[in-house]
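Lecture notes, unit on protein representations.

Consider one protein chain, 143 amino acids long.
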Amino acid sequence: MQRWHIARDQMRDLLDAGIPASGIALISPWSLGNARSTLKHCSTIHGIPMHGEAKNVTDWRENRCLWASTIKSFKGMEATHVIVTDLPAGDQPGFTTSDLFVAITRAKLQLTLIGESERAIRQIKQLLQNSSKSQNATSSTPT
């Protein structure tokens, strides 16, 4: 199944479950014009338009559109349900682990990660596992 279909189905399921449009965001490292971007397939879900520009923030917050933008455009914003798509394997021009950190810290309740490839998914899982182990080791204190 293509990434766009996975993201679309996830957004439909969230809307069907009663999650408001303002609680859903689709973000990608790649802009609308990039051939690697899922965003180029974004138009509407259940008749709700998808937008991701600064001028659309009010419409999104008032449930008049779903959010779809780059990770960088979504920096500083949050949603209860964030779908991060098009994640590449490793650092690439235009995408770093810093971008991944921004992406995975935007969700308040549910985070969905969709990689560009199986290799990307394995690398992201490994990075998250290593990060979790590191946090557990540094946050525990002897008694």
